[in-house]
Amino acid sequence: MGWDAGSLGPPVGRVQVEIYTASFRVSGHMTTRFHTVGDILNLAGADHLSIEEATVAEYADPGANRGGPSVLVAVDTILFGISDAASAEAPADEWGGVQKRAVRCQLALPPFWVTGDIHVPPGGSPLDGLLNVADRFLSLTDVAVSSGAFPAFDGNAPVVAVQRHLAQILLVNDVDAPQNPLEEILPEEEVRGWIPPPMEPQG
């Protein structure tokens, strides 16, 4: 009796990736069952990520690229990653049938600033979405990457997965946060109905 490949999970495929460390960009492809950069990085089963047919660019000397049939990148050093499967990576628009909201944030991952949206459930705190999650790498959408030291490496991407623990500064611009978090989940009339009427003065 042979193995049923379909029962072993998604089929293996080739995904184009760009991996950024503090000094290098490694671009190439990976052969993997995962189709999003967040899954690729969070579910890496080894200390090093293997990238095939890879090109290594050094920020300080962008004209001196190196390449090889296979390059290993230490996962602990990865600041962020990008893949070509962005359409499959956007977070679910709903949480429990209620629309999520996007919150703009900026993460300083020297020598880069990464600016993008996290998607939080109604009433959820953006800081919880940044800090109190299990995943090592956090996916941001609608992303802009900039570097004052190396402007040639500035760019944009639909989705980027960043290693949260390497971020030295985290800025949150939650301009749409309601004064009362319940306002996002329940109609205002229902929330008001929970508030008891003021007590009449005695005497």
- Give the H and E element order: EEHEEEEEEEHEEEH
- Our Rg estimate from Cα atoms comes to 22 Å
Oligomer: single chain
Q: Round the mean pLDDT to the nearest integer and report it.
A: 79
Strand order of the largest sheet: 4-3-2-1-5-11-10-9-8-12
Biggest β-sheet description: 10 strands, antiparallel
Report strand %. Answer: over 45%
Structural class by sheet pairing and helices = mainly beta
Helix content: under 10%
Are there runs of 5+ residues with pLDDT below 50, and where?
A: 1-7, 179-186
Précis, in short:
This protein is mainly β and 203 residues long. It is 9% helix and 45% strand. The strands form two sheets. It has a ten-stranded antiparallel sheet.
Summarize this structure as a short list of keywords or feature phrases.
10-stranded antiparallel β-sheet; mainly beta; 3 helices; single chain; 9% helix; two-stranded antiparallel ribbon; 203 residues
